[in-house]
Amino acid sequence: MKAAVVHERGRGPVYSDFPDPSAEEGEVLIKVTAGAISRTTKSRAAGTHYDSPGALPFVAGIDGVGRDGDGRRWFFAFPRAPYGSLCETTVVDRDHCVPLPDGLTDVTAAAIANPGLSCWVALAERAKLAAGETVLVNGATGAAGGLAVRVAKQLGAKNVVATGRNPAALARVTTWGANATIRLDQDPSQLDRALEAQFAEGVDVVLDYLWGESAGRLLIAAARSGRDRAAVRYVEIGSVSGPNVSLPAAVLRSTAITLMGSGTGSVPPARLLEDVRLLFGAATKSGWEIPVQVFPLSDIERAWANTTAGARPVITVGSKTPD
Fold first, then answer.
1. Pick the CATH number of 121-261 from 3.40.1180.10, 1.20.1250.20, 3.40.50.720, 3.40.50.40
2. Label partner for 227 (CA 20 to 30 A): which of 76, 178, 196, 313?
3. Cα four-point dihedral sign 303, 305, 309, 312
4. Paired strand residues for 181
5. Superfamily the domain 2-99+291-316 falls into
6. Count of alpha carbons within 13 angstroms of residue 129, beta-carbon side
7. How do residues 178-197 score in pLDDT, each as one tens digit?
8. What is the C-alpha to C-alpha distance for residues 63 and 65, in angstroms, rounded to an integer?
9. Which residue in 179, 189, 163, 1 sits closest to 82, CA to CA?
């Protein structure tokens, strides 16, 4: 079969032949129709992710959409190594498959699954968001962060504060439910005052897609403004701005901040799949979509190098582009 195959660490996959999979007991063969290229997919291929495959070669991709032998549509996750999602056929544990609702297209489901699940799990499973609380999304101008604004509202947040550098994107997230926005590219002293004022008003949960410098400023602002308030649950999801943060030790000693992460391994697989089902139900009911750029599997190298801001690359498989 044809697949996006990783032959060498540090280099993207190439379109080449790979052995057809066969299903063992408890597994199902899936004819793949669509799969997105996520940051996790790229870092696993590069060998820099904590859950990167150990042996080469392997097929790139951690989740996707396809059909079983009876023609039923499924979202699937965590194919058995060395198979991935960016190939013609993959093999997956039956328990790692979720049926797709009729109102959700293959491309939309593939595009929304990873970013939507990242914020759904962070809010529902890790932070245990309660109705009426305030959520701050650090890095809300990307596809994942913008979706996080909508998910936070869906899960009961009363107020959502969005941070980012792109003014047009920040304006867009207000139409998706953000109650306030904060520009990260303003003068540092002004930024610190804006963050401290927001935490003084009350922030219960932070979803951080950026890490790096902005995370340090957020945590310091929370410490300065939140001593008389309940603990801020700070959930680290991504590290677009850098893998490290510089933080005075006193920040964690002087206030009640709960610092946690959300990613592969932080929640049992069974819970992840249940959250995917709930996410797809909400997406179908609310008509959620995110910008996508569609590529055929044969164009994997161009798709891998794609840097179109705000659009999620989706690989389609088969003789025609799926709905």
1. 3.40.50.720
2. 178
3. positive
4. 162
5. Medium-chain alcohol dehydrogenases, catalytic domain (3.90.180.10)
6. 29
7. 999 999 999 999 999 999 99
8. 7
9. 1
